[in-house]
Design goal:
- With about 210 residues, the protein is α/β, with parallel strands linked by helices.
- The chain has a single domain (about 5-205), classed as Alpha-Beta Barrel (TIM Barrel), CATH 3.20.20.
- It has helices at about 5-10, 25-35, 50-60, 75-80, 95-100, 115-120, 140-145, 165-170, 185-190, 195-214, and strands spanning about 15, 40-45, 65-70, 85-90, 105-110, 110, 125-130, 155, 175-180.
- The strands form three sheets. The chain has a four-stranded parallel beta sheet with strand order 3-2-1-9.
- β4, α5 (about 95-100) and β5 (about 105-110) form a beta-alpha-beta unit.
- α2 (about 25-35) packs parallel to α10 and α3 (about 50-60) runs parallel beside α4.
- The longest helix is centred in the C-terminal third of the chain and has 21 residues, at about 195-214.
- The radius of gyration is 16 Å and the shape is globular.
- It starts with a helix and ends with a helix.
- The structure holds 3-phosphoglyceric acid (3PG).
- 3-phosphoglyceric acid binds near residues 131, 160 and 180.
Length: about 210
């Protein structure tokens, strides 16, 4: 796993962010950093995504900011130009994954079947996003699907929250959990960055609780 992906595993949690207005990027990054969550996946679901990544990485060069919901090679280029340190995709698009590999940017494609895991292994990937985690079988599915692939680690995302986070993080092959529960769009839109900071802190404490006892 690349150094950057190792860092994501150290954090244990990757906030999945949807930013509609680029002006929200700086206060959001500050809230996450103050909350102890020094990483984020900024999704390419909005026109503001690339600019938001640029603002966040310029303000906090050490923050591990990546691009999410990347579904085309053009978006990979845009993400790299904005300063994204890693690429996440909801599914396994071989063209996008191969392009990221050729550009030497860490990529975490989405998988939810053993066949897709094999596609990742074929390309030398060792961290894959399990998406949509809760809806695709949750912790039981991860345990069953990971059994034949001891070298692979997963980043489950989708339906994860403060309640089920500890269960996911206690699975050995789970490197980190992605989720939007601490950065909900309504909190960003109404500018409630202190709530985001509070939820980020809570998530960090939950992750520490699991990681320190395993
Ligand atoms: C994603 O974008 O990866 C997921 O939609 C995040 O899922 P969540 O909103 O259920 O955390």
């Amino acid at each position: 796993m690349s150094e950057i992906l190792n860092e994501l595993a150290d954090f244990g949690i990757v906030p999945v962010v949807v930013i509609k207005n680029e002006e929200d990027a700086l206060p959001l990054a500050k809230a996450l950093m103050r909350g102890g969550l020094c990483c984020a996946e900024v999704t390419f679901r909005t026109a503001a995504a690339a600019k938001a990544i640029e603002i966040m990485t310029k303000a906090f060069p050490d923050m591990m900011v990546g691009a999410g919901t990347v579904t085309s090679t053009a978006q990979v280029d845009e993400a790299i130009s904005s300063g994204a340190k890693f690429i996440v995709s909801p599914g396994f698009d071989a063209e996008v994954v191969d392009y990221c590999i050729s550009k030497q940017i860490p990529v975490v494609p989405g998988v939810c079947t053993p066949t897709e895991v094999l596609m990742g292994i074929k390309r030398g990937l060792s961290l894959l996003k399990f998406f949509p985690a809760q809806q695709a079988g949750g912790c039981d599915m991860i345990k069953a699907m990971s059994a034949p692939f001891p070298g692979i680690r997963f980043m489950p995302t989708g339906g994860i929250n403060a309640q089920n986070l500890p269960e996911y993080l206690s699975i050995g092959c789970v490197a980190a959990c992605g989720g939007s529960w601490m950065v909900k769009s309504d909190l960003i839109e109404k500018g409630d960055f202190s709530k985001i900071e509070e939820l980020a802190k809570e998530a960090v404490q939950l992750a520490k609780g699991v990681r320190c006892t395993n």
